[in-house]
Amino acid sequence: MVLSLAQISQQLDSDSVKDRKLALAALRDVAPEDAVPLIKKVLKDANQQVRSMAVFSLGVKQTPECLDILVNMLQTEEDYGVRADAAGALGYLEDVRALEPLVRAFYEEKEWLVRFSAAVALGNLKDPRAKDTLLVALKSEEVVLQQAAIAALGEIGALDTIDNILAFIQSEDWLVRQRLAESLGRMPSEKGRSALRYLTKDGNSNVAEAARLSLQTLETDS
Length: 222
Description:
mainly alpha
């Protein structure tokens, strides 16, 4: 059953967490300009999952005010999981004005999950100015931050960082090697192709397949 905007609004006021989550899900097919005012009703919801869903929705239902709302959530929300969701949603917006707050979150946050989401979002922005921050993330002791940085540097096509990411070709973490293989497919160079040929023989099938696909991409684009 398709709910009307009035019904969704009423359901967002329900005492039931399940009802409020279902109401947010019902906004999937609603136009952004109609959805965002309703999403805003639950941004301060007592339930963390509801707030997370609302924040995620703002990254998908994009209106001019979403950027400022998400930046505010990133900077003031008490729950670090929701702050991480806000960082991710800012990446979905693909608005370069999100660069500065995401960079600040990466450097100032204590929670690795928020820093991880900020690094991923910086890649989604595809703004070359994120490169220096991502190189810092690359040196992190947190493997997930290394994964995020390698992927993001590929997203922004930072060809001049290829030596930095190739240092991870022997990483013990197969996801790091997979992200490397995927990123090299966005960095056309003979050095990258040589590394990809090596990675096609990787003992992990996911890494080897990613390397094969990246080689195919480079051949198609050349």
